[in-house]
Amino acid sequence: MALRIETFSNVKGGNAFFKAVGHPLAARKVPALLDRLRVGPVAIYDPLGLAQTLAEMYDLSELEIAGVFVQDLADIGRSLLGHAAQPVPDLKVSSARTVLVVAFDSARLIDHIRHLVPADAEVCGLESLRLPNDMLTAPRDYLSGLNFATNLVLFRDRDGRHTRLVTANYWSGYGAKDPEIWCRLMDGDGSPLAEWRESLPAANGTITIDSAEVRRRFALPAFTGNLFIHVLHVAGHDIVKYALDTYGDSETDLSCTHDANSWPAERYAGLPAPQDDERVILWVQNSHPAPIPAGAVGLNVMGDEAVVCLDREVPGYGLLALDTRDLLPEARWPQQIEIRAGKHIVRPRYEVFDRDGRGRIAHANVERGDLKPDSGIRELANLMGKGYLLPAPILPPGRFSSLALPTPMATGQENLPVRIAVYDAKGAEVASQSLGCLPRNHATVLETGALLAEGLGQGQDDRGDWGHMELTYDFAEGGDADGWLHGLFRYQDKRSGHVAETSFGAHVFNTVLTYKGEPQSYAGRAPGLSTRLFLRLGDAPLETLCHLIYPASTPWHAASRTALVLHDAKGQEVATRDIAIPCGGSLLWRASEIFETGDLAAAGNGGYVLIRDTTCRLFGYHGLIKGETAFSLDHMFGF
What is the SS3 string spanning 131-143? Predict the structure, then answer.
């Protein structure tokens, strides 16, 4: 039962209306609007095609609807709110005593139809649901994406486990004036626990929101819920990126993931099934004020269309911990699970607990429904070498195992023609293996230790940079490609047993030729050939880990010219170190190995490293290390 709302498309981009009408502050004002509309029959005028989304967010069934009216001839006769849409000139002969114009900036639209409004009927728009002007970046364009830079955070402070969000004020770097963060913390039932604003530091200063500090500040009981964050007065773009660390009072609690992506999708994939001694918990975070009905969210084993639905309702803005065994008791690693989310939830996190209760957190990814196989990808090698590639670390094999699991991430992917290659730190390919043309329901996971032993020999110690792996397309055994190649990468400490995992998708890297928006550029048109990555530093005694990879679809500059710029929490530069990574190679490093102890002390809590390179696009992974007991790892974000 998918919500009939428009969120994001790769053609149109993001749609802010569902964010505007579903904002917690708007939801608080909806009962008063509904009371107003209950005065006699109400006519719905929907010139912008927004009425269905409004009805998906809020229950309009108690309203006596006199008719639904539209402006576009193509919409006449279409079913809207259970009524056949009528041309707006028919409004004048309706029985309406109230006319609702479904728009936030409705004055001009009302002027257009005022002569059609029945005598004595009241006309209103959605202005009563607007946020206060002091929360808006562009008050004259209410549905500008810049007014709704929002995200949802899985936030917990319970049973000795805590959550810490870290990001930077990158908006002021784009010219934003006095940005703030509006926060609302909600419990598992969606009820508000606390609401506050936080001023942001100067440009590129860091922001930290720690669950333990929030709990103390507001004298809260233990909680697991949703933290809704809205960055006000932004510039540059409306994306809210953050690193999310989970840490605990126990020495074995440490994990990390990142932002939820603010565009709810119909399906997500890349959720791993549990091993025999594990539990995999999917955190169902309702991102809307409307409850998720029982049966609207479900799971299926990847490649098997038999969906098992959740038979419980999830309240508006509520949170539910779904044990995958409850719906799919037979599914086991390395099988994968598909999430039928119905646009009710943003990119979901999941948490894996082992037999000792040790947990690790990661996220599923958006499964696209708009992609078809692209025969042109087969020909990319002629001009773009490797073409699409997905790089991931190999941690020191004497200490860690590094696993790769290709994950279908589009509904039209019936097969995955995949090759995996291992590269040393200098960029030389030392081993490779074709995985063949994997079916959609495959359960093929590769541990890179055997390939490393073949390519690099034995005698590997605990430290040193052993390079990285890359997934690429391999059509030797047939198959199709659409450029949306994804993989899940799992790392296990052979001594402590601690595990971390992360997932991402392929891109074209470091070639001046472009193909369908690749090499991807986050600012301006493709190709994206520069680097700006954010590495948050762990507070003492945590050590900070970073693995930088210089992937290249075709030969590029022989070495990177990368600056590692250490900043304090205010965004002030403390120290800079220059490094060079060979093309096709990588560098695994710790902050304490690059920067002097005094410089790290000067950066202090909330310090970070900006990784900057104007000559090439690097791909990075970050993590924290807690002595010999725990570590975390996830891919990095840039701004």
Answer: CCHHHCCCCCCCC
